[in-house]
Specification:
It is a single chain. By secondary structure, the chain is of the alpha/beta class. It has 2 domains: about 240 residues, Type I PLP-dependent aspartate aminotransferase-like (Major domain) (Aspartate Aminotransferase, domain 2), CATH 3.40.640.10; about 130 residues, Aspartate Aminotransferase, domain 1. Helices cover about 35% and strands about 15% of the residues. It has a 7-stranded mixed beta sheet, with helices on both faces. The N and C termini lie far apart (about 55 Å).
């Protein structure tokens, strides 16, 4: 087996977990479109018995994502929410979870509308100061769930500080690394136990796949998560796995352009007369900017803006006026997207809760793509006129 640790990120993005097909020499991992595998005698399945448990195309992808995060083990799921669901199934009734007060709406919905019904208690805490976590730890606490940067106000959470608290109290720290991607941030290296990705976003990168992933270097945690995946069946198909393998091969190149374009656009919007507030962790005055500099390679292509004095009608007008940016949910694709969190990605969060952390009705979230940045700037100019 290839030692991925001796290679750089770009080399692993192209090669990790992938070998030429032993039958034909095909350089691309085949799409093993099969539901089952022939066994010479009962129990001699060479690791593959039924495709819900394992598929060679998916295994190659899992190894690749694990290598990019510096992890020992990887698991892929049919969606990011499927991956989150598996982590929550590590818990038992009466357990408690500490998580952020700025959180993807789907995560909030899963915590409050699904797992809270099974007797699991969730504390939504301002985690920008990691010491706040300590105030909510008790004998029932089992998991810290962190996003960083957060969706959509780009809060920066100190992963190493959270990891120290987790280890001191024998807790699991799971980090949603979707906004950063493994190219910009590696939470396991900062002490996290589990890293989650909505693979749909930057890893896939082309808005043509829905998938999730978990990585860990803890064998016990991996075994539990694999048992959940195999038992509950939230596994992705081989075609989707193939598409993500192909997408990952350009992840490092795409992320460099996302970051370049993101910086140019953030700098333009920072002084725009129609913008009341901008959230982008690359600015020195962004809260926890120094932590972002320490734990991230660059600051990414996600930006949120608050329109100055805009009511909902004017916010909708602006959101619908773009010609290059597309009004759509999701993020991380090669094309630029604009999103209205209050009515789209975060609609499941009660108004008073989301507004408390800044997700107001006149906030728009931009996923800056890899188009010519001049075209994106012109598009912003005409939409904000």
């Amino acid at each position: 087996m290839t030692d991925n640790s001796k290679f750089g990120f770009g080399t692993n993005a192209i090669h990790a977990g992938q070998e030429p097909d032993p039958t034909t020499g095909a350089i691309m991992t085949p799409i093993y479109q099969t539901s089952t595998y022939v066994q010479e005698s009962p129990g001699t399945n060479k690791g593959y018995g039924y495709a819900r448990g394992k598929n060679p195309t998916r295994v190659a992808l899992e190894k690749c994502i694990a290598a990019l995060e510096g992890a020992e083990f990887g698991l892929c799921f049919s969606s990011g929410m499927g991956a989150m669901d598996a982590v929550c199934k590590l818990l038992r009734p009466g357990d408690e979870v500490i998580t952020g007060d700025d959180l993807y709406g789907g995560s909030y919905r899963m915590f409050t509308k699904i797992f809270a019904n099974y007797g699991i208690k969730f504390h939504f805490v301002n985690m920008t100061d990691a010491s706040n976590i300590k105030n909510f730890i008790n004998k029932n606490t089992k998991l810290i769930w962190a996003e960083t940067p957060t969706n959509p106000t780009m809060q920066i959470i100190d992963i190493a500080a959270c990891a120290a608290i987790a280890k001191e109290n024998n807790l699991i720290l799971a980090v949603d690394n979707t906004f950063a991607s493994p190219y910009l941030q590696n939470p396991l290296k900062l002490g996290a136990d589990i890293v989650m990705h909505s693979v749909t976003k930057y890893l896939g990168g082309h808005s043509d796949v829905v998938m999730g992933a978990l990585v860990t270097s803890n064998k016990e945690i991996y075994d539990q998560l694999y048992f959940i995946l195999n038992s509950c069946g939230a596994n992705p198909g081989p075609m989707d796995s193939f598409l993500v393998l192909r997408g990952i091969k350009t992840l490092h190149v795409r992320m460099d352009r996302h970051c370049f374009n993101g910086r140019k656009i953030a700098e333009y919007l920072k002084t725009h007369p129609k913008i009341e507030k901008i959230y982008w962790p690359g600015f020195p005055d962004h809260p926890n900017h120094e932590i972002a500099k320490k734990q991230m390679k660059d600051f990414g292509g996600m930006i949120s803006i608050v329109l100055k004095g805009a009511d909902l009608k004017e916010t909708f007008r602006v959101a619908s006026s773009f010609k290059v940016f597309s009004l759509a949910e999701s993020l991380g694709g090669v094309e630029s997207l604009i999103n209205h969190p209050a009515t789209m990605t975060h609609a499941s969060i009660p108004k008073e809760d989301r507004e408390r952390v800044g997700v107001v009705d006149n906030l728009l979230r931009l996923s800056v793509g890899i188009e010519n940045v001049e075209d994106l700037l012109e598009d912003l100019k005409q939409a904000l006129k």
